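Class, study these two lines:
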Amino acid sequence: MTDVAEIGPDDVVAALTDAGLVPGGPVALAPARELRGLGLAAADRSFAVRAGGPAAAADVVREVVAVFAPRWVWWSARSAAPVALLDVLGAARCWDLAAVHRFLHGGSTDEPALVWAAIRGLPADARPRSGQLDLLGLAETAGPDGDPDDPVRPDGYLRPEWAETQPTTAHRAARWAALALRVHGAQLEALAALPDTRRVPREPALPVLTARSESAADLLAAALTAGGLPLDRIVAERLIAERVGPRAGDPSAEAEQRARRDDQVRALVPGGAGVDLRNPASVRELLTRIGIDVPDTRSWRLEPLQSAHPAVEALLAWRKAERIATTYGYGWLDRHVGVDGRLRGMWTGSDGAAGRMTAQAGLHNLPAELRPAVVAEAGHVFVRADLGQIEPRVLAAVSGDDAFAAATEDADLYSPVAARLGCDRPTAKVAVLAAMYGQTSGAAGAALQGLDRAYPVAMRHLRAAEEEGRAGRDVRTYGGRLVRMWPLSEPGDPAAVTGRGRYARNAVVQGSAAELFKMWAVTVRAGLAASGAGEIVLCLHDELLVHVPESRAHAAVAVIHDALAQSAATWAAGSPARFVVEVAVGRSWSEAKAVTSAAELTGLVGGTVVRNAT
């Protein structure tokens, strides 16, 4: 069991120096409950710091950052970076054990007991769990399984009272930090066993770099959760009212509003009264009465038929209003928008599949109709940055197909692909997307065959992943993330086998694109922090929304472009594939205007041009 030194806040720098910590070295951090103390660990030493509260704890962290600029190691940003420490940590370099565990082992489960079992090679299903009484802290007494002050039981598993609750004292936090440092070392060893898939391998290897950016993405997720997205509530309520009616005072009034919306559609179809528009089968029957026979009633299938009958256009409008009423209505505003005008939801650094960032409170699916309510605060603008055509560009890089990489030199990748295939641009786009998503027939069938001839290396890369998925074998992304396949209830079911193969085929592209996106996003965040040029307030698939003081818009645009150049050169070292970012600036999310030059940016926000925005 590691010895713990009890120290005061003024002794931290000297203690870490005596432990052999050098600038940039790893320091494990574990806050005690309510930040009454901190646990720190470096090298083979651990320290219980008597902090006494959030302000004192923040001062300790601030001093360590100023002197050592360490790489913080913690079990997870959720537990180690409470709101009181987020501003101090900022865009600090870090190592998140939970994020790296998900990267190495796949899935979304990442509690400490599972992380520890994985690095010790212990069966995960056998890890001990506590009951409700233990979670209330009543199990921290000695028992037949050894010393309760040691986080590890004699059988090698973590004690549930350690793994499932935050340390109650600085002394326990110090032991928890020391254990985190051990896991950090073991995860580095596991990453060393993965190949560096870049054309020009470098040190650190790509899996290590990806683990670092995944960790920083979890810290970014914590900051997004706490910071929120600026929203003008008055504008939001007006937009909702225009689509679903004024705020109702009681459930009966809401039911009347819903019935009126339904009747506006049903009245356009003879005999349509009483049809349940929320039942797809009933909607399909309704459409047959006006001569429209479709296999299903998905919006994308109905949109080309809007001119066939007014009821189709009304139905599509009804669906948008219904979505706002049920998911993004007044109750949504009341639950998720704070008194400071920020829309907040819980963010995670990666989902349980291919590793995309995700958010709750509808942040990832905010309807376009409500985006005008996302308005920058006074004296600020939004800089919206979108990685253009990111997935096909990633495919060019990860597959090593130089012919396909040549197409990425064009700002619009699909135009040179169309020229090479001898088809129009829309067909070429459909073919490329179909290839990445595993579609092998349909309107783009002939073009897909052309892709095999024109870009055989990229197509072989996709087929190899599909074959692994069909066989039920896990795949890894370009950066090294494990993407798990799943057993089939009926192993011989052709449709299920095909579906699993398509999933794997797409995951090796989508997951790799998510890794590049997050490496870019955290590099942007670090650049913004260093230059005081604003904060990221939204990560939407391949898009960043940055909230910046108007006077710093030029600097923010420069950071975005520089970060992409740096990230792409690191992530795709040696690949000729080109990555592009499309930038727009405006007072609201919906009104942001594209910026292709510094002069255009100056025209939007004024100020002095500090560099060419492109």
